[in-house]
Structure prediction request, 99 residues.
Amino acid sequence: MARLCDLPGLGPRSEEMLAEIGIKNDADLRRIGPVRAFLMLRKQAMNPSLNLLYAMTGALAGKNWLEVAQSQRVELLLELDGFADLKRMFEEANVELEI
Prediction:
């Protein structure tokens, strides 16, 4: 298992933020996934930028975050929107969605 700051595009600050939500290595990030990790950071009021989402996605794929931002931006944003829609549906049904 690799330390997060050893992955391309993730540095010590990203590693610290992710550790606060229980993501301590590449295996944790792969298991949880970049989008869910991004949402977990938001839930903890850490205000991650979309660049961190791109960096986490790129880190797992061995790509530069800029490449991810160009090639997968729409896909990742749609996935975020899907989670937001799902959360609204659960809230309307008075059921808490665990991210």
Summary: The helical segments are 12-20, 26-32, 34-43, 50-61, 65-71, 73-92.
